[in-house]
Amino acid sequence: MTTPVPHDAAPRRRRRFAALQAVLLLPPLLFVLSTVPGVRPQQGYQFLLDGVLNNLAYECAAALCLLRAWRSPTGRTGSLLLGAGLAVYGSGNVAWTFVVRPMAEPPYPSVSDALFLSFYPLAFAALVLAAHRPGSRLAWSLWLDGVVAGLAVGAVAAAAVVDTILEAPVAGWAAVAVTTASPLLDLVLLVLLAALLSMHAWRPPLGLWLLAAGLVLFVVADLSYLYRTAMGTYVSGMLTDGVWILGVVLMGLAPGWPTVRSRLHLPRWALLAIPLLSTVMALGVLVADHVWHLHPLAVGLAAATVVAALGRLLLTFREVANLADSRELARTDEVTGLGNRRALYRAVEELEGARGASSVSLVLLDLDRFKEVNDSLGHHAGDELLRAVGGRLQQFGRENGTREVVRLGGDEFALLLPSGTAAAELLASGVHEVLRAPFTVESLQVRVRASAGIAVLPLEALDASTLLRRADVAMYHAKSRGAGTFTYDVEADEFASGDRLATAELVREAIEKRTLTLHYQPKVDTGTGAVSSVEALVRWHHPTRGLLFPDAFLPVVEGAGLMEEMTVAVLEQAMDQAREWLRAGDPLAVAVNLSASSLADPRLPHRVARLLADRDVPAHLLEIEITEDFLMADRERARVILDGLRRRGVRVAVDDYGTGYSSLAYLRQLPVDDLKLDKSFVTDMGSDPRALAIVRSTIMLAHSLGMRLVAEGVEDAETCRQLADAGCDVVQGWYYSKALPAAELEAWLARYRGTPVPAAPAPDAPAVPAVPAVPAVPAVPAVPVAQVAQVAQVAR
Ligand code: C2E
Ligand code: CA
Ligand code: CA
């Protein structure tokens, strides 16, 4: 959407380029027209048409390809090779017309055959380069799909033509070799092409569709030529020649398109239909063999298709089973056996649906002297201590009505309690008590102390990440004051009647007057380094408290029933911004977050379409991010709304993927384009090797369902590199940039684009960026500094 488009600042140059292309397209089109049956007054070779125009057409297609390749910012080498292949092929034709054909006894094979065959290695190289998306590893099942489809097509083609071609009388081994070479090479081309398409989940960018169409026509024409010459029915200037030219022209048009996935794609069921259909075709060939005794090549290819299809099936089973395992593993902590962050998310979700409790608390614990133990006694002792602490906490929690005890990583534990401030504070002091007795670690007596941060949320505003953030902030206060426990109690704050009403009034005004602020965070394509879109994140300039982050006011918005209005405001402001970028000639897609409560209205897709139309903003510049819980809560409504959005061309992403219950099996039935893997997986990647394994298998499965995988919360080069390596399509996080006001984002983009982005992060070099991300990331707590300051004022 931004960089990879062959865009030219000067419209005049763009017009000149367009005119040049039109000129180059003219000869091929005229020739193709001349081969349509009924157009030519007489049949057979005519020098002006089949000698001059035909050759000109080949050369124009090659020139078109080279020209577009040269101007293309991505994949230039591959495209240039393709152009070279077309040029070589064209020159083979020229040689035939002017050297071989005029001879009294034209030799076979001749120099022109050598030139024709040289096309193949160049085309193969171009395809392989197009397949090599740097930094991405592909799901084996996708490769296999491609192989299966290619083999099946090959089997059918072989069954249809090989006998006839080989039975034609040819003399000498060179002649036989050349005659067999081209259908075989055609077959390899088809297999490679099918593999390439399946690697793009059969939803390749437009350029690849053109290349694919061109190659298929080329192969069809080639086979039809071989077949007809063998039968003795080929004459120059017949439709076969036109199809040939059409094929090379489509290939010539292939370079220089945006590398984003085309909207033009096969429906999701096609992913399965391809191996299925291929198998059916192969079985058909095997059955036909019994009746007509086909050439062994056809039978062999058909048998290979069936074997490959079986392999594909087994692999799918394994991938699904792996993912199920890793999802279970994903909720336990390796060291202590307690739940982990995701178990906590899940427990919070369960509480959201529960009745009874009116508020929920999270007691976050941080061991004060754990690092000392770890450094002086070693990791092994450290782990032993963590296990012992975990054991005591779990028992204590169980006896005191705790819903879940988890280890969040490092020396951080948390207890989730389905009750309010008083009970949580009691629990925290109990925890201090329980931890007071010394631990025995490697036969040494070790004493630990913990700091505790407590966050309390009313049930109606319950949300795991808000709870965690607030507990983090409270922990920060507890540590900085040297107090054992600090409570960040929202009920006593915005939610206390007077203050809360006043706050709600202020935020309502901001929503109505469209004075909420949007910050934009770039999403970076790992393959090209281009910024594929930006996520709009809402902020609010509170008249006295300064800039507030979503978790400081979304609960108020939610509580006051203003969520739908806010969503419309954010959508409008985001699309106004998208229109400005579009007008400035640098279109950027904007992603907007929709909370479950703003999705109550089934006419939302219609309203979104109106908002877009009012501004003349094309739908592909809007993306919608929806969390898993909404999808699960009301499946029917989710489907209606998502279908509506997708039908209008709006991209849909599932946000915070992995924290909820949704199974991929269910998601695949929904029109979802992207999966946004939750931050927690990304954060854990550095410390827990299993997290990386989970990320890998999620990426593979997402790909085999035709979705892109977006990783958020990417804070460092190492994580970024690992993600790119694992095949992640898009990354987002502070490593590149925090969310910025529009003007600052533009400045960032200008700097970012100025730096050449190595598409493939070298194994030991720093991955991409970049432009030093905005200010340094605060060490403790994991909340932007501004936000801590701002929350500190809120918290009495
Ligand atoms: P989210 O949609 O998961 O957004 C990502 C959050 O992660 C943002 O926090 C973003 O600033 C933060 N983030 C980005 N990169 C990193 C990183 O590298 N490390 C870490 N630790 N964090 C990173 P933010 O802006 O505070 O938003 C929090 C949540 O508020 C969002 O989570 C989203 O659920 C909600 N939200 C934000 N804007 C809107 C909105 O316009 N409408 C609705 N309904 N919800 C919104
Ligand atoms: Ca989001
Ligand atoms: Ca998210």
| Number of spatially distinct domains | 3
Q: Percent range for helical residues?
A: 55-70%
Terminal Cα separation, in Å? 46 Å
The proportion of strand residues reads 5-15%
The largest sheet is: 8 strands, mixed, barrel
Unreliable parts: 1-8, 754-796
Question: How would you concisely characterize the structure shown here?
Answer:
It is built from 27 helices and 16 strands.
List keywords for this structure.
five-stranded mixed sheet; 3 domains; Alpha-Beta Plaits; 58% helix; binds calcium ion; disordered N terminus; alpha/beta; binds ligand C2E; TIM Barrel; 12% strand; 27 helices; disordered C terminus
How would you describe the overall organization of this protein?
This protein has 796 residues and is an alpha/beta fold. It has three domains: 20-259 and 267-317; 341-494, 2-Layer Sandwich (Alpha-Beta Plaits); 505-773, EAL domain (TIM Barrel, Alpha-Beta Barrel), CATH 3.20.20. It is 58% helix and 12% strand. Strand 13, helix 22 (664-667) and strand 14 (674-677) form a beta-alpha-beta unit. Helix 2 (47-71) packs antiparallel against helix 3 (76-100), helix 6 (173-199) packs antiparallel against helix 7 (206-231) and helix 10 (296-329) packs across helix 24. The longest helix is centred in the middle third of the chain and has 34 residues, at 296-329. The model is unreliable at 1-8 and 754-796 (pLDDT under 50). It binds ligand C2E and calcium ion (CA) (2 copies). Ligand C2E is lined by residues 521, 537-538, 549-551, 570, 593-595, 655-656, 679, 712-715, 733-734, 739, 782.
